[in-house]
Write a structure and sequence with these properties.
This protein has 4 helices and 7 strands, in the order E-H-H-E-E-E-H-E-H-E-E. By secondary structure, the protein is an alpha+beta fold. A 7-stranded mixed beta sheet has the order 1-2-3-4-5-7-6, sandwiched between helices. Helix 1 (10-19) runs antiparallel to helix 2. The chain is globular and about 40 Å long.
Length: 158
Amino acid sequence: MIRALTGDDRASVLDLLRATDVFTAVELAVAEELIDIVISKPAQTDYFASVAWDDRAVPHCAGMFILGPTPATSGTWHLYWIAVHPSYHGKGVAADLEQSAATFVRERGGYWLLAETSSLPGFERARAFYRRRGYLELARIADYYKPADDLVMYGKRL
């Protein structure tokens, strides 16, 4: 079940992000900040977050995304975070989350969904996911995150 993030989900989502073992401490702090904004300021319209929740036997957060409209555009949105707990890899959770994010954006008049990721080998799974979901590589900025770690920008026209 995919639903809006609530305060009760905070710890589980942060555990999920740590369990992926691909994000740095700084990246995790950014995610935590965005999660806290979504939870503590429900009237804000810069960030939206949803979770995929597995209610079987032991309730568990299987995945999450955070997205928001890109400032100064009329229909471009950024998919800032999409992550799936490793125990749910290969089970369609990421595809369901991405579809939910795309639907969310379309319902608000959005027509572009952008996603950024790293060029490091540990992010090949993410890059392959975006390609499978119909995203095109729109740009690559060399040494963006650090030397030999490029930013790879993907986009999907909705």
